[in-house]
Amino acid sequence: MNPAAQQLPDLTVETLSAAIAILETYGFLFQTSTKGGYQSFEHPDGSLINIRPNGEIVRTRPKIRATDGKTYRSRYNRHETKIKFEPGAKTHNTGEKVIL
């Protein structure tokens, strides 16, 4: 089964409050808000959703362990596709933003 972060609909056309309501509907719980304006939501399966101060959504799956023993979280874009990490290529932008 796909992680919860991958199952969410595209939140690009949603307002911040509507996006938060959708996250709650999918089982995400508010975790924290930083002084810088970041908001974090976590799902019981370990998926994380971060909303940046500019409205960008960052979806990450539960932690997985690489062959070298380190743990990491894969990012997903608004089309539910895993974002391939390419160092120096600015590949971490998800292209998904809520309306602030």
Structural class: alpha+beta
* Overall body shape: globular
Helix content: 10-25%
Overall pLDDT score = 87
Q: Going across the major beta sheet, what is the strand order? A: 1-2-3-4-7
Number of strands: 7
Low-pLDDT runs of 5+ residues are: none
The helix-strand sequence is HHEEEEEEE
Largest sheet report: 5 strands, antiparallel
Specify the oligomeric state.
single chain
Radius of gyration using CA atoms only: 13 Å
Distance between the termini: 32 Å
Share in β-strands:
15-25%
| Count of alpha/pi helices | 2
What does this structure look like?
By secondary structure, this protein is of the alpha+beta class. 14% of the residues lie in helices and 23% in strands. The chain has helices spanning 4-7, 16-25, and strands at 29-33, 39-42, 48-51, 57-60, 64-65, 71-72, 75-76. The strands form two sheets. A five-stranded antiparallel beta sheet has the order 1-2-3-4-7, with no helix packed on it. A two-stranded antiparallel sheet has the order 5-6. Strand 5 (64-65) and strand 6 form a beta hairpin. The longest helix has 10 residues, at 16-25. It is globular and about 40 Å long. The mean pLDDT is 87.
Supply database-style keywords.
two-stranded antiparallel sheet; 2 helices; alpha+beta; 23% strand; 7 strands; single chain
